[in-house]
Structure formats: structure tokens, C-alpha cells
């Protein structure tokens, strides 16, 4: 929203980076992190609480390693976008913004497994409170850095990175404080056991999520080939954001239903990977 007040090119650049570069990485890592939804939900339902922390640590290892690989599209975003025929000016600014957003990539690699770990225990009120504080602070700092101080895209990147890492630190502080009981008993070498089986489950989950999410990426890419690409991408970005607000309502309800259903499964998958 604030990027629209900076300029049409800047709004288009943020849209392309969020939907194409970051959207590609988000789909892969969110999908891989979603493997915990099955494992943690079943471990919690079977009262094997100590496995929740082990699974989260395994997911950190796998998703964190994946983030290292996904960092390269961020670094080479400008030439990649130009290679597929995107507008040169938008590609230049989107590439700059992508490099500035690398810290958020690694914040997501930590935060996605944390979400599934806490959701399995129905500790959603704490996550909602942290997210509420984050969005208020993010809105304030975005306005201050982007518009008041005139930092433009650099201010947007700083605000986004700070918000992402604040959520990571706040969630970790909550977990490490002992409020999760047996679900978190500290770091363990067991996290490095049977990683390949975990990778297979994570990869299957990632494919499923990516196929659901990447049509947004294709939509932005094809919009970039239209005449007056800046205006076209800006318009589709605004429409996509409005659709995302409505999507979040049903998505949140869906997460709650799946978490409840996993707790009720009688044949826990977690035994295969414990």
C-alpha cells in the first residue's frame, strides 16, 4: 500500500519480487514446513510431546538448507527477470529489492516450522498476539521509513525484514520460556536422525503447496508482458492483495480444522519418522 505512494515502478517492482521471486521461495519453504502439520499433529494426539521439538529442529535443518539454495534466485533476480522478457526497469528495481529481502528468506525458514509446532499444541492465541503487535509496528515503520523519511524501497525492505525477524525472536522467546512443557526440552542430536525420510515427506508437501500457490506467480509474469507493464502489474498487485485478505479468512479456518483432524488420527505417521 505504501509502495503505491512511492511510485508506479516501485509498486510494480515490489509486486514482482513478492509474487515471483519471494513467491517461488515462499511456496517451496512453506510447503516443506507444512510437513510438520501432519507429524506434530499426530505426535500431539498420541501424547508423544517430546517429538514435537525434534520434528521442529529437523524441519529447521531441512528448510534452512533449502533457503541457502533459494538465495541464488534472489541474488540474480534482475538477469533472470530480464531473461524471461520482463520490463527492464521493473526487473532492475525488483532485483535490488530482492537482494535486500534475503534476511526475510531466512526468517521464514525459521518461522514456518515454529508455526506448525505451536499450531499442533493449539497455542494460536500467542501467535495471533505476536502477529498483531508486528502488523501495527510494521505499518508504523513502513510509513515512517518509506514516506516520512523518503527511503522508498530500502525503507520497505528494512521494515519487512525487521517485522519478520521480530516474529521469529518473539516466538522463540515464548517457546524457550518453558511454556510448551515436554514439547520443547532443548536442542537434541536426534534432529539429525532419519533426515532423508523427513526430506521425502517435506518435498511431497512442498509440491502440493506450490501447485496451489504458483498460479499467482504466473499471473504476475504474464501481466508483465502487456503494454504499459508498470500500470498493469500495479493493478493486478492491488487486486491480488484484496483477494489475499478474503483468502486469509478461509485459510485460517482450514488450518484449525486440519489441526483438529490430525489430533484424531488413529494411525500416527510420526512413528515412521521417530
Shape: globular
Radius of gyration over all CA atoms, rounded? 19 Å
Percent range for helical residues? Answer: over 70%
Strand fraction equals under 5%
Q: What sequence of helices (H) and strands (E) makes up the elements? A: HHHHHHHHHHHH
Number of helices: 12
Note poorly predicted spans.
Answer: 266-274
Q: What oligomerization state is this entry in?
A: single chain
Count of extended strands: 0
pLDDT averaged residue by residue: 85
Distance between the termini: 45 Å
What class, by secondary structure content? mainly alpha
Largest sheet: none
Nutshell version of this structure?
The chain has 274 residues and is mostly helical. It is built from twelve helices and no strands.
Features:
single chain, about 270 residues, 12 helices, globular
Task: Describe the fold and architecture.
The protein has 274 residues and is mainly α. 83% of the residues lie in helices and 0% in strands. The chain has helices at residues 3-6, 8-33, 35-45, 50-75, 77-83, 88-100, 102-120, 124-148, 152-179, 195-223, 229-263, 270-273. Helix 2 (8-33) crosses helix 7 and helix 7 runs parallel beside helix 9. The longest helix has 35 residues, at 229-263.
Helix-strand layout with pairing:
Blueprint: H1 3-6, H2 8-33, H3 35-45, H4 50-75, H5 77-83, H6 88-100, H7 102-120, H8 124-148, H9 152-179, H10 195-223, H11 229-263, H12 270-273
Helix pairs in contact: 2-4, 2-6, 2-7, 2-10, 2-11, 3-4, 3-7, 3-11, 4-7, 5-6, 7-9, 8-9, 10-11
Amino acid at each position: 500500500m505504501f509502495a503505491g505512494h512511492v511510485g508506479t515502478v516501485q509498486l510494480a517492482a515490489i509486486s514482482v519480487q513478492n509474487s515471483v521471486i519471494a513467491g517461488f521461495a515462499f511456496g517451496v519453504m512453506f510447503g516443506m514446513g507444512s510437513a510438520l502439520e501432519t507429524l506434530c499433529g499426530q505426535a500431539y494426539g498420541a501424547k508423544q510431546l517430546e517429538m514435537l521439538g525434534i520434528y521442529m529442529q529437523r524441519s529447521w535443518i531441512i528448510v534452512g538448507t533449502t533457503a541457502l539454495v533459494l538465495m541464488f534466485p534472489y541474488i540474480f533476480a534482475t538477469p533472470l527477470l530480464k531473461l524471461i522478457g520482463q520490463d527492464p526497469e521493473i526487473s532492475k528495481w525488483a532485483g535490488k529489492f530482492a537482494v535486500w529481502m534475503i534476511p526475510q528468506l531466512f526468517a521464514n525458514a525459521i518461522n514456518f516450522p515454529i508455526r506448525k509446532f505451536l499450531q499442533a499444541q493449539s497455542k494460536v492465541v500467542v501467535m495471533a498476539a505476536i502477529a498483531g503487535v508486528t502488523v501495527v509496528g510494521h505499518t508504523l515503520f513502513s510509513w515512517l521509513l518509506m514516506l516520512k523519511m523518503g527511503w522508498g524501497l530500502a525503507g520497505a525492505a528494512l521494515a519487512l525484514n525487521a517485522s519478520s525477524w521480530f516474529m521469529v525472536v518473539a516466538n522463540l522467546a515464548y517457546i524457550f520460556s518453558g511454556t510448551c512443557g515436554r514439547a520443547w526440552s532443548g536442542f537434541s542430536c536426534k534432529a539429525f536422525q532419519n533426515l532423508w525420510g523427513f526430506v521425502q515427506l517435506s518435498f511431497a508437501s512442498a509440491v502440493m503447496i506450490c501447485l496451489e500457490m504458483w498460479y499467482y506467480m504466473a499471473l504476475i509474469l504474464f501481466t508483465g508482458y502487456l503494454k504499459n507493464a508498470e500500470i498493469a502489474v500495479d493493478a493486478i498487485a492491488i487486486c491480488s492483495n484484496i483477494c489475499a485478505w478474503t483468502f486469509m479468512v478461509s485459510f485460517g479456518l482450514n488450518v484449525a480444522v486440519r489441526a483438529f483432524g490430525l489430533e484424531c488420527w488413529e494411525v500416527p505417521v510420526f512413528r515412521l519418522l521417530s
